[in-house]
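dumping the sequnces here before i forget
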Amino acid sequence: MYYLGIDLGGTNIKMGIVNEKGEILLKNQVYTNVESGSDNIISNIISLSKKLIKDGEDYNYIVKAVGMGVPGPVDENGVVINCINLNWSEIPIVQILKKELMLPIFVENDGNAAAACELEAGLLRGINTGIVLTLGTGIGGGIIIDGKSYTGFHKIGAEIGHMIVGENFYNCNCGRNGCLETFSSANALIKYVKELLSKGEKSSSLYSMCNGDFSKIHGAMIISAAKEGDKTANKAVERAAFYLARGIINLVAVLDPEKIVIGGGMSKAGEWYLDKIKKFTEEERYFQEFPIPEIVISNFKNNIGIVGAAMIAKLNYIEKAEED
Amino acid sequence: MYYLGIDLGGTNIKMGIVNEKGEILLKNQVYTNVESGSDNIISNIISLSKKLIKDGEDYNYIVKAVGMGVPGPVDENGVVINCINLNWSEIPIVQILKKELMLPIFVENDGNAAAACELEAGLLRGINTGIVLTLGTGIGGGIIIDGKSYTGFHKIGAEIGHMIVGENFYNCNCGRNGCLETFSSANALIKYVKELLSKGEKSSSLYSMCNGDFSKIHGAMIISAAKEGDKTANKAVERAAFYLARGIINLVAVLDPEKIVIGGGMSKAGEWYLDKIKKFTEEERYFQEFPIPEIVISNFKNNIGIVGAAMIAKLNYIEKAEED
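..and the predicted 3d for all of it:
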């Protein structure tokens, strides 16, 4: 059985045909272009999906259902409540896509999609209680309880990026101050580096890397500079890891999970970054005798969104088939 | 069927014989006297329990099982891992009590006991996803997921009082800074009032109420002064409510519960305090269009610990009977 997984992000729309084991067989990607507006973005999703489904047929990868992860909450009728990073509000996405693609469509928050990815095909297989954190433009979260995805009473839970963990120099786009994603997302890392540079940390190699144009600074550049020993970059990376650890210990206090999986763009920083997260988690734990969960980096890296969306399609498609 | 419920607190040991509906039929209480040490406290628990079980027999209230809630984590073997407020560490309480009382004994964290109370006999009956917060010496938490008490992988979850929600002027006894219980417990309220008074807020009526002896200030005194319009007391109460609301919204972001029940000593401040919590929760919500849970005050007030402990006994006793 094959599924189309669509990962709608603030930067790119990525999609792939995925088999039951979570392997991507065909893949496609286009720039999201948030400024072009929701109609244009949806129209791009539709045409790219149609093309990929068609391409799949040439290889006999017949898509049975489509899953999509979006960077915001989705209600039980398949309406995207909002996506701040996309300027979306109240978009009946399931209805729109169903009409165009003529296939079963299942849309969920991208954090839940990441959790489905790890639960079905990744590092949370067989785990009873686990958490996935995706560190991208924002921070997505997925929670596994009793071996199932947990989303809460109104289906708006697992928004772990909006847990307040401290006080920050800028507000979150949700309206509050101190949300985890304003400390530990890729965007937060960039914002903090810009803040340091604009305050005059001129010896940083990031100055020359961006030719003095701060708008050219991106996450990978900061990670790279930090790995090469740049003090400003390291200060920013350590801050992101420190607050992430604080968020992890908050989750430990509330949910006491067995395992935490880190995915998303920033997870590409690899073991080097994981070691920092683990060090701070060790230091931040409350009551030193309390056990803390295993923390690992997803094997899916940036593909977690595509595979997760496909696994959402798989889980719902199978469930629906069983009901019929 | 009758159960003995024991509420071991930092101030008092309270216990009662409780029926299946959660009604207290006989009740007894003794000062905990933390300084006397764990052996003395346990010896008091045993003699008071024996006396109450015996008294119950006169009324034909035959106790079938004993439940106890303790202010700290308990492992699956019935060993209290630690209770900071009691100076307890690694106490095999179930083993000790079983030998003396010759009845089935079940011991859990007091937050879980509070959740069992509300789930079985209180405001969380029939609720799928709910949270109980007990505002006492510290802050206890209980989480209901799928209509059952949730405690996590190592059984040390639902320690909601140790979720970091900001930066505070003193550290938590868990070793971190900014835990919810250092802002919104009764102890936190008292500490903050002392801080304000020692910094010279001399116009406060609390000065005369305690005759200048700050060690005499207690929670009920502050609530009473605040209700009568004292500015210092009000400032402290508002701060406690503000951070509690922040903690509640953090829980909403993670768990999206249907209902939150507030219990413990500070809940005796009643609707007046609940209104403040609700006001700040409304202001602190992230994304104004997101639904927030209903917040209510437990009907059990200070008895939540006794009834909860009895309900822990009831639930485990029935479960065990079904297994046999």
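The first strand of chain B starts at residue 2 and ends at 8.
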